[in-house]
Amino acid sequence: MLDLRPHFSLTLGAAPERLHFAAHSHHPRPDVTRAAHLAAWDDAARLLDGKWGHVLGPVWQAAQRHVARHCRLPDPATVVFAPNTQEFVVRLLSALPARRPPRILTTDGEFHSLARQLARLEEEGLVAVTRVPSEPARDCIPRLAEAARAGFDLIWASEVFFTSGAALTDLPSLAAAGEAALVIDGYHAFMARPVDLSAIADRAFYLAGGYKYAMAGEGACFLHCPPGWLMRPRSTGWYAGFGALAEGQSGVPYAEDGWRFMGSTFDASGLYRLNAVMDWLAGLGLDAAAIHAHAHALQARFLAGLPRAGLDPARLVVAPDDPARGNFLAFDLEDAEGWQARLAAAGIVTDRRGRRLRFGFGLYQTGEEVDRMLDRLQTLAP
To answer: Rounded to 5, what percent of the chain is helix, strand, coil?
Structure first.
């Protein structure tokens, strides 16, 4: 089993007794990100007004190549970055028809950045939303495909659902459902399990970021923008006009590639950290498949010890033998809040969504941390 704890010495050393099992929520950053963060400051001091040529040149392009490689995208130029996915949510929605409430098909398991925004727009009749059940996940894509026959402007679904960890594995079938613009929320999939967009790169938007499994911290979210789809978002920043060289454009010009979804001035340090993590992983010969395998090996060790730890494996939302899942385990518990509080009091960091208690596993852990957690769990059962 991998032991990369020395590469996370700054985070792990900050609280040696803490057992962090929330890699899906706030993933510890490897040590290389600190030097990268400082490099962003140093470049700003060294280059001053010339900094943007460097950031939007080699730094940006390196980040595009990293994302394209890990998502198997044919053209890095389709990738654009923003400080958070909320910016992309707003820009994507702003590209939908305006003369009537746009029709949106989604699931009841989407993350708050979309779910809250849609709920607010619904309050004033600005969108018409149809939601299909996200569980059981194995039937979610067929449900979406069936519903899509009614005709929609946008279809939006998560690759891995944040409340359960269940994964949608047949994305090409979803891409073939209807003629609406398609957005895949990949935040719980990117760098947690292999992502292959090669078959749908010309059809589907894909958004994710560096805060979770990519281990880069805040400020490095990205959107893959398929050519020809949703070309002129109404929510736009002045950077979106860079490269608008096509003749015959009238009014507000837009770039033809992913830059059409650009915003404005941003903190570039997230891109520096993202590049540092991707280079570090490449140097170790690790990819998303290796990360996924490591996390699942830790999960298996954790599950094997549960009989003595007081948590019932039968309460798992996704069966432990189901390969269609991400890198966290979710338990459906009536006393999830109490469990989380007891775990926190014992120095074990988890997180909770309602009655779903979630344990996340990552590269900074070994079997030793799992065993220590199981030992502490023995004393916590109500």
So the answer is: 40, 15, 45
pLDDT reported for residue 232? 94
Q: Name which of 325, 92, 326, 63 is nearest 204 in CA terms.
A: 92
Q: How many CA atoms lie within 13 A of 230 on its CB side?
A: 35
> 351 in helix, strand or coil?
strand
Domains of the chain: 5-21+287-377 (3.90.1150.10), 33-279 (3.40.640.10)
* Of 111, 157, 154, nearest in space to 129 by CA: 154
pLDDT given at position 247: 47
User: Structure tokens of 118?
Assistant: 């849609």
Here the tokens at position 245 are 């060289």
Position 250 scores a pLDDT of 66
Whole-model pTM: value is 0.95
Positions in the chain whose pLDDT score sits under 50: 245-247
User: What pLDDT does residue 292 have?
Assistant: 97
Burial 232-263 (b: 16+ CB within 10 A, else e): ebebbbebbbebeeeeeeeeeebbebbbbbbb
pLDDT value for 249? 57
Q: Which amino acid is at 155?
A: I
Q: State the Cα–Cα distance between residues 120 and 377, nearest whole angstrom.
A: 40
Predicted confidence at residue 243, as pLDDT, reads 65
* pLDDT given at position 180: 97
Q: Are 370 and 337 in contact (CB under 8 A)?
A: no
User: How confident is the model at residue 310, as a pLDDT?
Assistant: 81
- The answer to whether residues 196 and 216 touch, using CB atoms and an 8 Å cutoff, is no
How many CB atoms neighbour CB 16 within 10 A?
A: 6
Q: How many CA atoms lie within 13 A of 48 on its CB side?
A: 0
**Residue-wise burial string across 291-329, b where 16 or more C-beta atoms lie within 10 A, e elsewhere:** bbebbbbbbebbbebbeebebeeebbbbeeeeebbbbbb
In sequence order, what are the residues at sequence separation of 6 or more whose Cβ sits closer than 8 angstroms to the Cβ of residue 254?
231, 232, 236, 240, 241, 244, 260
Q: What is the pLDDT of residue 242?
A: 75
pLDDT at 1: 82
